[in-house]
Amino acid sequence: SGNLKIPHDEIWSFWRVLQSDNYFERLFLDIDLADQITNEKVSQHYQEIKNYLDKWREREGAGITFAQSHEGYSIAELTVKLNEAYAELRGRSSRQKYTETHINNKKKKIREALIPTIKVAFSDGHLTNNARETIYAEAGKMGLSPAETDELIREVGSQPGVKKISGNESSQKSKDEMLSREARSLISSKNISSAQITVARSPYIYERKPAGISTKRKIYYISGTFLALIVILCFLYFQYFYKQDTGTQKKFHPDNDMVLVEGGTFVMGSENEEANEKPARQVTLRSYMISRYEVTQRLWLRVMEHNPSYFKGEDLPVDNVSWYDAILFCNKLSEYYGLEKVYSLKVNKKDVNNLSKYDKKKWVVEINRNANGYRLPTEAEWEYAARGGKYADEVILSSGYAISSAWYQSNSGTVTHPVGKKEPNKLGICDIFGNVWEWCWDWSGPYNFSGNLNPAGPESGENRICRGGSSNSYSGSLRITNRYGRYPGYKNEFFGFRIVRNT
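The structure corresponding to this sequence follows.
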């Protein structure tokens, strides 16, 4: 839905669509919605994927290998596949023709796959009702209509080698099947004599066991009652200890896992990297506390009572959360621990400062900078903490250190990992690089601060800042000054956050 937007600073999760035989899939489009797809949509998806490949072509010039991160495929190979799909689907009539051909080929393959099953069903000379129902069910799952399935059954039945049976013989077999089903249904009837009379002629009934509860059934009743008692006792046990636990939950406090970042002055940004990291300038921050770890699924679940994460695990960072989700969490966590909420939200009003074309919510979010509750870090706070605050040194600032202390594309298996397993920085902050991108408060924009004291970014923008890279990022993203942004409603499995508080 919407327009395709690929995060060009990391590995695109769905790049393998370019290997597909389906041209629609190569352009990240759904062939089942072909009649709704416009020429503009095709061109937009093509250009976005092309930009992704072009960005990697630039990186290859800097010594970063595309094939190593894309299962041995070269940019040239995937570009050919992309161009091939675009040439075929760029016009409406071409898409209609391709769709018809694709559907016909698909149905042909389905028919070929079903024929052996139908032949086996005909092996004794006729097709039973049960076999017919099975064939209908399988064909339906594979995409054939009942009419198409009927036609296929007739075709197979008329092939040489399939035994033909007369109408009388077929009728007798159907009658026998009916009597069999009737006998099976009546054999358990409470009206035993009626059942015996009704099916007395049936060749499928030879013996009637005496009525009454069998020894085996008595054992089932006793076992079932015992099992039910065990389940009830387990439930009561869980309820008791859950209530005990909720009484101690608030004894744990997020502040226990936060570190103090003493205020100071530092040089933010870089003159030697990407254009959006310039100009480097001096910034002064007051003291604050920042969480040692990214917000975990354990903490999120305790506060929000649901888990949106794609990768599941209590000690994994929460993922698949938008900037709005992070804001809501901060407020609810503050409320949970009796602190003043930092944010006020107006969900029924559109934010005129939100310039994104893709954000459907555009909630108005206002901030009380003096509140004592939990909030997202500003971009300046994030960078200062990542540097190690006043303890920063050249080792911390080097990309080699970042790579050694991070889960990223080359060592993560492209999944998130439990927090705190990598070396912390000088402040004791873990996973500041990699694992998940971390949402910040600021709108993304040029470094054009109105002041150097506690800057909080532009007043408006399309995207909110994300920092630190993820398990899906290439090593070049793991730089302290690297900047990235997505619209506030965006979410995927590599986006999470950490929290801060005023001291």
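The chain has four domains: 15-90, 96-157, 213-249, 254-321+375-502.
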